[in-house]
Amino acid sequence: MNKIIKFLSSLRFTLFLISLLGVMFMLGLWIPQQNLVSEEIYEQWRHNSPKLLGALESIGFTSIYASSTMLTLWAFFFLNLALVMWQRIPLIKKRIALPEGRPGNPETAPGYPFHASYQLPTGMDAPAVIGLLISNGFTVSGDGEGFCGVKNRLSPIAFGLFHISFFFILLGGMISVYTKFVGVLDLAEGETFQGEVSRFNAKPQLPKIGTPPIVAFTVKSVLPTRINGTPTGLKVNLVDSRGVEHEANVNRPYKADNSSFIVNTVGPTPLFVVQDRSGKDIDGAYTKLNLTGGKEDVFSLAGFHFRTTFYPDYYVKDGAPASRSQEFKNPLFMVTVEQTGKTIAQGPVTKDGTLAFADYQLVLKELPYWVRFSVYKERGLSIIYAGFAIASLAVIWRFLFYRREIIGIVRQEDGRALLVVAGRSEFYKSLTEDEFTSLFEKILALKGRTDT
Amino acid sequence: MSNVEMIFFWISLVIYSLASGGYIYSFVFKNPRFMPKMVILILIGFLTHTIAICARYQAQGHLPWAGDYESAMMGGWFIIAGTLYVGWRNKSLQALATASVSLVIVMMGFGVMRNPVLTPMAAALKNYWLYIHVYFAWLAFGAYTLAMAAGVLFLMKKKSLAAGVVNPSYEKFPSLDRLDELIFRYVLFGFITDTIMISAGAIWAKDLWGSYWSWDPVETWSLVSWLIYGIAIHLRITFGWREARFAWIVVLALSTVIISFFGVTFVIDTSLHTFQVR
């Protein structure tokens, strides 16, 4: 058992695991992942290479980030991390403790790459030197007959904090996985949503623990903006059940009940009305049409089927309908009317325009927008963000504010006070010499130094 | 590109090329007299590079934040700024420009072939986290590049000394011990800024895409490069890997950073990081 624990807590095993995780990540970049490619491409791959795909699916490599292999690696990683950190606690305690007893002779003490001696300026004595070191951030013990100064002695704690942050991210991540709700919701201007799960497109991913979003709001207005074809904004004004107005936009989702309603697509919600030839309304509805990227969509009114494409900024190019831009500057629908599978009319319909067919006419009365929300609800984010913050702060603390140590004595030589010091720091030797040279030049206001 | 931007962009590229050529000449022909002059040349190139960026900002109303061209332009600016700063603080490190400027030339050359048209700020980029995420990304790239440059110089000097070749150009460099520690220092700075970059990106992704981590290829590659530098730091601190071994790791590890910055979007169009710029 001890051997197993020793192996599981070894740093070689740590490096082995990290390397394996890196390999798995890179495999995920090379092997198409089912949730990252479109269904069409995935099925085409299945059609072209059924055996290969079957083999990869059987070992979970087409969903590699959530595969049993990956989860096993993560489990070993966190087990190893916990064991290594447990072993490191005594070492950290030892490193952050202040040195005890009289420090060694700075002229001969081993393990100190920096050695120097300075004649102290007139009037400066050991207590003054120690005071200057304290004002430069050192914690000093001892006196002129032997002192030890340590700066940033608590820095090794940051090592522990950095690695503890991984557990925060793990905990927050697990909570978010079990409480995660994902859905897609299309709402038109003027439409109200009260949290009904049935309103979501397709079947949303329901949380294993907890509820779907409990929200209620009405979409007041949708305003997309583009400049030279680049989408520069998608402002959606909402009113919640208490009458409070909210504005959502790309990068600024509407947030309520631990949920984010992220705006990402907009489309037309035309009010098409079928009238008889006298102008009397027979049937009509606001219809959310998915016509982005030149797609065709269908709707039905008064027993007829209508297939339509949409040109937001219509013009005729080489005799064919086209759109100058994606901005709704000159919107036009190209409609094909069908009945019992046969086309009976075809033509353009603009705002307040009509398309005559059979004994009726199709009128476009209004053209508001609909907006697609990607809806996410998950808990645990604050724990994850805390993990990020701890990791960032800890890595700064550990690597920028690392431990420095100085030992020294002040003795009399030829009637002058002579300061003899030795210094060391974590991570560096040559750069330590530069640093301490600068430090003593600064605090003693010296320009040169006398080496021993 | 605006006309002013185009002129100053190409002037910068020519100047960097001349400087890079001067450094290579100094090493090959063992004539270090050119090196101080190359620093002045790089400084001039840096100024024209800055003018090109200002011209682009003036033409499109926002700093170059997105797309391969703008990443190359700003990333290159940060690398040159880092090189000049380090060389100003320590003259013996001016020769880092040998490797860093050469990389910037390749980056900017690649970037200018990748659709440098002026674009308004896409809605997806309008978030304060953009500034934090991208700023720390460039700092990380710059630091890792300096580490790579120091690694290249270390290996060249070590090889020259081992072969008993007397090359006065290498005497312009710090000692091998000092170079070795500088490599580690740059890696640490890069790792710190890389950590902040990934954290800021994840927080931003939550508001933009709904999830703090989507295993998007750019995200995954950035994690891979972060892990590799993490392994390098572990090897150094815990197993005492130093000098040539460490230099080689650092030189090769930069390739993962280049892939995550430029390689992924070069190969695929469907990354979330495309931001509708193209």
Observed structural traits:
heterodimer, A: 452 residues, alpha+beta, TATA-Binding Protein, 4 domains, five-stranded antiparallel β-sheet, 9 helices, 24 strands, disordered C terminus, B: 278 residues, mainly alpha, 0% strand
Account of the 3D structure:
The complex is a heterodimer of chains A (452) and B (278). Chain A is an alpha+beta fold. Chain A has four domains: 2-94; 98-153 and 403-443, TATA-Binding Protein (2-Layer Sandwich), CATH 3.30.310; 178-267 and 372-387, no CATH class; 271-370, no CATH class. Helices cover 32% and strands 36% of the residues of chain A. Chain A has nine helices and 24 strands. Chain A has helices spanning 2-8, 11-30, 39-48, 50-58, 68-96, 126-135, 155-178, 381-400, 430-443, and strands spanning 114-119, 138-143, 146-151, 181-188, 192-193, 201-205, 217-227, 230-240, 245-248, 254-256, 259-268, 271-276, 281-286, 297-301, 304-311, 314-317, 320-323, 332-339, 342-349, 354-357, 360-366, 369-377, 404-413, 416-425. In chain A, strands 1-24-23-3-2 form a five-stranded antiparallel β-sheet, with helices on one face. In chain A, helix 2 (11-30) packs antiparallel against helix 5, helix 3 packs across helix 4 (50-58) and helix 5 (68-96) runs antiparallel to helix 7. Chain A starts with a helix and ends in a 9-residue tail after the last helix. The model of chain A is unreliable at 447-452 (pLDDT under 50). With 278 residues, chain B is an all-alpha fold. Chain B has one domain. Chain B contains eight helices and no strands. In chain B, helix 4 (97-112) crosses helix 5 (128-162) and helix 7 runs antiparallel to helix 8. Chain B is globular, with a radius of gyration of 19 Å. Chain B starts with a helix and ends in an 11-residue tail after the last helix.
